[in-house]
Design brief:
Layout: H1 2-16, E1 24-25, E2 28-29, E3 41-44, E4 51-56, E5 62-66, E6 81-86, E7 91-96, E8 102-107, E9 113-117, E10 125-129, E11 136-140, E12 142-143, E13 146-147, E14 151-156, E15 162-166, E16 181-185, E17 191-194, E18 201-206, E19 212-218, E20 240-247, E21 253-262, E22 266-272, E23 278-283, E24 292-297, E25 303-308, E26 315-320, E27 328-333, E28 338-343
Antiparallel strand pairs: 1-2, 3-28, 4-5, 5-6, 6-7, 8-9, 9-10, 10-11, 12-13, 14-15, 15-16, 16-17, 18-19, 19-20, 20-21, 22-23, 23-24, 24-25, 26-27, 27-28
């Protein structure tokens, strides 16, 4: 048993370095989330720059954003775009432009599209779009009278409460009025700052049981530093990492714990399957020498699988399909903009 435990520890260590793609656990072989023959399929390259926010609506259509950063796209910048991909027709169309430099996306239990409008000439707000009527409503733009930095990613719980990350990611002249942070928006409109201690929070997910809140960080120092803090990361994350918090019935968090760390690659967007496994997009943000992989963590926070990404890709976010596509994992990739899909043994998790 001791030798087996040693082999498992060694396996996980090698996994985090990208050397292997599945884990041998104490009870025997763990079933990978993908079959050995599964391959990523490129399904769209319609966008211009930086794909993000991939998510499915209740009809199965896939939405993804294009972050057209002004320091990358200096002329004829549309102000960000949201695209819609139809798995049945395999056609991608513009859904919203300008998008307020939309970043992360989320579909809540009502079927509405939640839009994280980012910084760099963006709306710096959390916006709701009714996918039936087309009505667009700004939910949050300020906290205690001060402008948000740039909403990055969003999730929700079974009660319909929203959780989102807010951090400065792009250089620019926009005034910084708040530290990087994480917030909860209750159904009555009350906004609460959650004390996470993360230097630059990014992706965010609630577990299927509603008892855990997962948050990733992208702590590269080459990105803009928020002078209002936090000054250091409470969990010592220097590049990428994922922290889990206990989440109680009122939406309060406690007992933060670092469950994954990568000192080379940033951890970006995430998604969950119905079994409570967490899928984490990681990348180095380097379009000239891209490095990227998907890390799958079990509810016990063990590394289940390291999924290689297509050559040249930078995985930025993940989301499962719905209906006939509920077993498909969709991935957004940046520089250049692309969307991929991958068959899995699992189905995605949504609160509806």
């Amino acid at each position: 048993m001791k030798n087996l435990a040693h082999r498992c520890s060694l396996f996980i260590a090698l996994s985090l370095l990208g050397g292997v793609s599945s884990c041998q656990i104490m009870n025997g072989p763990a079933k990978n989330v993908t079959a050995p023959e599964s391959q990523w399929q490129e399904i769209s390259k319609t966008g211009l720059v930086f794909a993000e926010g991939v998510v499915a609506d209740k009809t199965g259509k896939i939405y993804a954003t294009d972050l057209t950063r002004t320091f990358i796209m200096k002329e004829n910048n549309p102000g960000g775009t949201i695209y819609q991909y139809d798995p049945l027709t395999q056609i991608t169309v513009k859904f919203m432009e300008p998008s307020g430099m939309a970043n992360g996306l989320h579909v809540d239990k009502n079927g509405d599209l939640l839009i994280a409008q980012g910084d760099d000439t963006g709306g710096r707000a959390l916006v709701r779009k009714n996918l039936i009527t087309g009505e667009l409503k700004t939910l949050v733009r300020t906290f205690e009278g001060k402008r948000l930095n740039g909403v990055n990613d969003i999730t929700s719980d079974a009660q319909g409460r929203l959780y989102f990350t807010d951090a400065r990611y792009a250089p620019g002249s926009e005034a910084i009025e708040l530290p990087n942070g994480v917030y909860r928006l209750d159904n009555n409109g009350q906004l609460t700052a959650l004390d996470t201690g993360l230097f630059r929070p990014n992706g965010i997910e609630v577990s299927p049981k509603g008892d855990k809140l997962y948050i990733s960080a992208t702590n590269f120092t080459r990105l803009p530093i928020n002078p209002l803090g936090p000054k250091v990361d409470r969990f010592g994350i220097t590049a990428g990492g994922v922290v889990v918090f206990d989440l109680d019935a009122s939406g309060q968090i406690s007992n933060g714990k670092l469950i994954f760390r990568d000192d080379e690659l940033a951890t970006d967007g995430m998604t969950m399957d119905s079994s409570g496994n967490l899928y984490v997009a990681t990348h180095n943000g380097n379009a000239k020498e891209p490095k990227s992989r998907i890390v799958v963590l079990s509810p016990a926070h063990e590394v289940l699988q390291i999924i290689p990404t297509p050559q040249g890709s930078l995985s930025t976010n993940l989301g499962f399909g719905r209906g006939a596509q509920s077993h498909l994992l969709f991935m957004s990739s940046a520089l250049p903009w692309k969307i991929y899909q991958l068959p899995t043994h699992r189905t995605g998790h949504y609160f509806n």
